[in-house]
Design brief:
The complex is a heterodimer. Chain A is α/β, with parallel strands linked by helices. Chain A folds into two domains: about 180 residues, 3-Layer(aba) Sandwich (Rossmann fold); about 140 residues, Response regulator (Rossmann fold). Chain A has a seven-stranded mixed beta sheet with strand order 7-6-8-9-10-13-14, with helices on both faces. Chain A has a five-stranded parallel beta sheet with strand order 2-1-3-4-5. Chain A is elongated and about 65 Å long. Chain B has a domain of about 210 residues. Chain B is built from twelve helices and four strands, in the order αααααβββααααβααα. The longest helix of chain B has 27 residues. Classes of the chains: A alpha/beta, B mainly alpha. The interface between A and B is large, with 51 and 51 residues.
Chain lengths: ~375, ~325
Amino acid sequence: MKKGVILAAAGLLALGLADAGPARAAEITIGAQVPTSGSEAPYGIDMLNAIRMAAGEINAKGGVLGEKIDILPGDSACDPQAAVNAASKLVSQGVTGVVGGYCSGATLPTLKVYGDAHVPFVITASNSTELIGANPGNAFMINSTGFDQVKTAVNLFKARGIKTLAIINEGDAYSANLAELTRTAWEKLGNKVVDYEVVSKGQQDFSPVVTRIRQRNPDAVFWTAYYADGALLIKQLRQGGYAGMIALGDGNNSPKLFQLAGAAAEGVFCFSNPTANFLPEAKTFIENYQKQFHQPPGPYSALSYDGMMLMAHAITVAGSTDRMKIIAALKQTDNFPGISGPISFTPQNTLARSNFVVLLAKGGQWTLYTGPGAPGAK
Amino acid sequence: MSEAAVRLGRPGWSIRRALGVVVLLAALAAVPGFANNYYLEVLSEAWFYVLLCLGLNIVVGFAGLLDLGYAAFFAVGAYTAGIVTLRLGLSFWLSLPISVVAASIAGVIIGGPTLRLRSDYLAIVTLGFGEMVRISVRNLAVTGGASGLVGIERPTLFGYHLDSIGAYYYVFLLLAVLGVVASHRLENSRIGRAWKYVRSDEDAARAMGINHAMVKLAAYILGAIFAAIGGCFYAAKMTAISPETFTFNQSLLILLGVVLGGRGKIPGVILGALVIVIFPELFRDVGSMRMLVFAISLLLIMLFRPAGIWPEKWR
């Protein structure tokens, strides 16, 4: 009967799992869906820190509706199945709302989980255009989508007299999507994409690409993937004698690019979501963040901070923790003053303005580009 | 098994044992009545991995062929469902027979050229096969490239729309039970004994007249079908699939479930699958350290139970 005993024990273990779902009361709980394990964990922890910091500041001022805010982290691990588990757990724990969302692929399937439970979800980083169609109406994207980045890029290219373009991506969801959207938009204007390359992640030697680019000699090269490989590409392009414009997608706004690319990075353009150091409103945010976590804020910290503040604001406006009322309040957000700029939403619940900025590499660091073709410049 | 136990039709099945199984199944079927969505989500994932691990167990456990690319078959199933419903606009249910055919072809593709390979060499080829499938789906237009397929319709069964986690709990529980029954029947069949013979000594098996090529191919094909059917329902449940789900890590995780539980032993494999799904969730409250805690607990299990939690008795 030993087998039977073990089977029964396994069954009990499975059942025992089922009665532990604690619903915390008396506090307003907000879920933070960010990757805290896996390769994207550094970004996720930056976001979680900022969300906790915002909640701390709100609580120090007496909380929301007289209640303290409690943050419940849900580790999405940048993996769809893990994210769905995390989301279901947050819903089961009775969160009033959720803030976060980093990897678009992992955020996508959670939209339905939150949608079914009518949980308001402020998405602070994920910005794939596929999220827009899949949104059941309860999710709000406060980071600009790929469409806005393409617009920013095309404007800059036009203003700088670019006619022919080479686009290089790594074939992953994010960089391929950005490359494809840019190609479509660029060709629609009657301009030419003379070279469209897909390289593999972690590739060290770009000489075939450099040779082709030298032959076809485009006015600008647009790299849509991430900085680690981008830095090598920049170096090899310049060494190969390419003198045209180099522009980089928003996965390249890391200062580490300069350590890898060195002097070759000088004069390179980069499109970026608003990182804290280029936001005039974020000075105290940076100081407080540094003080609390002993490191500078990450690229999505400012947006995550705004996301939490916006959620608290919406709960206050709704006047209750009724999720439907909070969703309605979020929907009506009108120029909410975030540190990354004012927040309003389009009918599709995406950010009503483009928050992309153009950075220019100058003297070994990123500076805000304000010349012709910069967002907001005439 | 007590002497007094009344024998049923099949040897080894006492009334008490049959009763135990019925009670266990009834308890599992009752879970959605009181468990919240989180537990249903985790348990559905657990049943899903039970199915995958049982499928891989046919290849690794019964036939003794090390396979490091099993996620490829899972991908074949998931993408078949995605392509059939999204690109061809056919019913989801049609994707089941189609994916079985596709998985069989994939099983022959990996099984055929590797018939004469053993151990490490076989592992390397299967690893390469897994990566080839993943990179192919990442670069083909029909599989949606790197973004994968989004917006897969959830199926309807007898007028009931499979749209809630409760429904998928039953779907995956049913699949897992079918997987157990099929594995059990296969293990005690002529081909099951042939697998174990080939595993123990391939040359002796051939000398005794076992067609080792057919036997090995059958193991690959049957294992692939388990994963493909699971993959179809995975696609329906998640409604979105992308190449990132089918990495080498996925293959490794499924293999881990099989080895951890005890290869070749059906209850052991079920336990192993439950461990790889439920442990990381149990440690969710540990926060960023949870995968470390998971890894340490796996190490401890392997240190104290080197043949798996519930190993097969070799006869």
